[in-house]
Description:
Layout: H1 17-25, H2 31-35, H3 39-43, H4 50-62
Amino acid sequence: MRVKKEVAHDFPREIGRPATNALLHGGYTRLAQVLKLSDAALLARHGVGPTAVKRLRAARSLKPKK
C-alpha cells in the first residue's frame, strides 16, 4: 500500500494536480517562489502547461497583501 505524504503549499487548486505535483517535486511550496520563475522555466517542468502558468500568474493578483 502506498502512503502519500501531504505537503503544505499555497498553490491555487485551479492549476491542476499534475502542475501542483511538478512544482512540489521541484521543491517549491509557496506561490511567491514560483512567481519568481520565468514562464519558460515553469513550462520546462513536466506537468506544467500554458494554462497552469496563466492561472499561476492570475493568482498573484488574487493573493491578499500582508
